[in-house]
Amino acid sequence: MNVSKVRPPLGGFEGRLEAELLKVVTARATAPRGWRAAVRRPAVRVGVVAALVAAVAGGLVAGLSSGSPAGPGLSTAADPVHIRTAGFTLDSYTDGTIRVTWDKSRYFQDRQELQQALRVAGLPVLIKEGVFCKGPQDNGYLDASGEGAGVSAVMSGEGQADGAVVFVFTPSAMPPGEELFIGYLSPSQLAVTHGRPASVERLVPAGVALTCTTQPPPSHYM
Amino acid sequence: MNPWAEPRVRSIGTDPAVFTQFYRAHVDEVTRFVARRVADPQLVADLTAEVFLAVIEAAAHYRGSFGGPRTWLYGIARNVIAAEFRRSAREHCAERMVAGRRLLDADDIGRMVEKIDALRQVRELHAELQALPEGERAVLELVSVDGLTVVEAAATLNIRQVTARVRLHRARQALRSRPARSFVEQEVMS
């Protein structure tokens, strides 16, 4: 039964909101499966619901677009990398840094896109949700912000006045043979932080079995 | 038959018919949830829109064992409002152009103001609870402000029922220990 045909249209604000939201749902329904993440969070904060739908219709929301091959492997990043998605922008600079600008509400949602984009830009990174890993020799140390040893040299973040967050990654600070691990709390783990999105970052050896747990660190590390 | 079985809820973000049914069943409830916490009609419109956008995003990951779609929805609404409260005043100024308020006309604002006015005492109650520790406040808020049962509040917060009962007891004890008791505190005790 098609409920939307049977029920009379809503009036007023509720009806107009329903129409806008249905555009988002319809865009997601018709988007290729791998692109759905880019069709979520339609920038409500800047009133871009309609713009997002138009972008989808025009084929502008195309997952990742880059001057470099957008495959899952690491790029040599010999050329500057500029990636634009519906959720974030990523730019690599001649000083070797990578700057990623996000709406802060999205940082904890598009982990696969972020992982792929950072790898394309030359940063070895592993991002998981609800799982927290460390290397076999790691003593489990985390500082008060949830970062393991050496992480602060590799990444830093700052909030912007417009609600965006800029993360600066420095691949050259990554010790040889290691990669950056980022573990987001899953929705069911957010009770630890009373609903506040949070993550753990560690430097871990690449290509070896990691010790992982689904038990989030205590809240004072978040 | 349960109209909101897990697979059906998971399709909310991609099936327009399912979304329409869910939206219409809950839009008034979500608007009231927001209006119990926010007095600005335009911000109520923004946050109501944001809650449903978050629902669209999160639906595919819905797990029915967490207490059903209503408590799931309340959990999302709590997160959206908490995120709003964390934003700085400066950010608020930079984010005035939002979708929800653009959808309001004069009649809508009038209706919204009526709804907000009717919930004034409940909103005062919510504001006074902010002094409590977060975990205890969250349970008391859902029970006393939103009218959920302790079981529903526990599901919304993803905590055990016994934990919710303990936190509710502690929150009420904390309010009882305060010297001056306002109208809204008396409401919480009842």
What's the layout of helices and strands?
The complex is a heterodimer of chains A (222) and B (190).
Chain A: H1 3-6, H2 12-30, H3 49-57, E1 82-84, E2 88-92, E3 98-103, H4 111-121, E4 125-129, E5 132-134, H5 151-154, E6 155-159, E7 164-169, E8 178-184, E9 199-205, E10 211-213
Parallel strand pairs in A: 4-8
Antiparallel strand pairs in A: 1-2, 2-3, 3-7, 5-10, 6-7, 8-9
Chain B: H1 6-10, H2 16-35, H3 41-58, H4 68-86, H5 89-94, H6 99-102, H7 106-118, H8 120-128, H9 134-145, H10 150-157, H11 161-176, H12 183-189
Helix pairs in contact in B: 2-3, 2-4, 3-4, 4-10, 8-12, 9-10, 9-11, 10-11
N-end to C-end Cα span of chain A: 46 Å
Got a strand count of chain B? 0
In total, how many beta strands of chain A? 10
Helix content of chain B: over 70%
Q: H/E order of the elements of chain A?
A: HHHEEEHEEHEEEEE
Main sheet properties of chain A: 5 strands, antiparallel
- Classification by helices and strands of chain B: mainly alpha
SS-based structural class of chain A? alpha+beta
Order of H and E elements of chain B: HHHHHHHHHHHH
Most extensive chain-chain interface: A-B, 42 and 58 residues
Shape of chain B: flat
**Strand order across the biggest sheet of chain A?**
1-2-3-7-6
Write down the Rg of chain A: 20 Å
Instruction: Kindly report how far apart the N and C termini of chain B lie.
Output: 36 Å
Q: State the helix count of chain A.
A: 5
| Count, helices of chain B | 12
What percent strand of chain A? 15-25%
